[in-house]
Amino acid sequence: MKALIIDDENKARRLLKCIIEELCPEITTILEAPDLEIGVALIQQEQPEIVYLDIEMPEYSGLQIVEFLSEEDINFQIIFTTAYNKYAVDAFKISAIDYLLKPIDKTELQSATKKAIATIKKSNINNQLNDLKNTFKQLSLNKIALEVPKGFIFVSHEDIVLFEADGMYTKVYLENGDTEFICKPIKHFVEQLSNLTFFHKTHRSYFINLKHIKELSKRDGHHLVMSNNMTIPISKDKRNEFMTIIRETFNT
Question: How far apart are CA 158 and CA 143, in angstroms?
Answer without folding.
Answer: 9
